[in-house]
Amino acid sequence: RSLGCVVWDAALVLAKFLDTEAFDGDGPRHALRERSVLELGAGTGAVGLMAAALGGENVSDFLPAPDYILIADCIYYEESLEPLLKTLKELADPETIILCCYEQRTTGKNLEIERKYFELLQLDFEWETVPLDKQDEHYRSEDIHILCIHRKR
C-alpha cells in the first residue's frame, strides 16, 4: 500500500486548523492570502489544497523562503527525520511559519522516534504547541498535535 494515497488524520486536522479564527484571526483577508505556501509530505496534498483554497500561493521557486511550510504526519519514520529537518533548515528563514501536525503514536518505536525528532528540532528551531481548544472543534483529537515552529535567529 502506498502512504501517499491516504488522507491521514493529521492532514485533516491541519487543513481544518487553517480555516479557524485561531489561525486566521478576524481580519478581512485570510492569513494565507497571497502568501507563499509549501506543503511537505502530507499524503494526498489535502493540506496544500486547503491552503490554496484559502488564498495561499504555490511555491515552485524556493527563493526567497516561503511564508509558510505545512507538514502533516511526517515524524513516524526514523530514516526521514534528519532529511526532513535538513530540508526545513535549508528552506526556512526566521520569518517562515512552519505548521507541523502529527499523530502521537505509542506502538513500536514511535515514542523513541518522536523523542528523536524533538531532540533534533531544538537544535535549530523553537516551537509552541497549538492548544486543543484553538483547533477546529470537529477536526481535532487529543493524540494529534499541531506545532507552530520558527527557525532560531
Can you characterise this structure?
The protein is of the alpha/beta class. The chain has helices at residues 9-17, 21-24, 46-53, 78-91, 110-124, and strands at residues 36-40, 57-58, 68-72, 97-103, 125-129, 144-151. It has a six-stranded mixed beta sheet with strand order 2-1-3-4-6-5. Strand 1 (36-40), helix 3 (46-53) and strand 2 form a beta-alpha-beta unit. Helix 1 (9-17) runs parallel beside helix 3 and helix 4 (78-91) runs parallel beside helix 5 (110-124). The longest helix is centred in the last third of the chain and has 15 residues, at 110-124. The mean pLDDT is 90.
How would you describe this structure in keywords?
single chain, 153 residues, six-stranded mixed beta sheet, 5 helices, globular
Quick take:
By secondary structure, the chain is of the alpha/beta class.
C-alpha termini separation: 41 Å
Shape: globular
Question: Helical amount among residues, as a percent range?
Answer: 25-40%
* Largest beta-sheet details: 6 strands, mixed
Poorly predicted regions: none
Beta-sheet strand percentage? 15-25%
H/I helix tally: 5
How many β-strands, per DSSP?
6
Which structural class do you get from the secondary structure elements?
Answer: alpha/beta
Helices and strands in order:
Elements: H1 9-17, H2 21-24, E1 36-40, H3 46-53, E2 57-58, E3 68-72, H4 78-91, E4 97-103, H5 110-124, E5 125-129, E6 144-151
Parallel strand pairs: 1-2, 1-3, 3-4
Antiparallel strand pairs: 4-6, 5-6
Helix pairs in contact: 1-3, 4-5
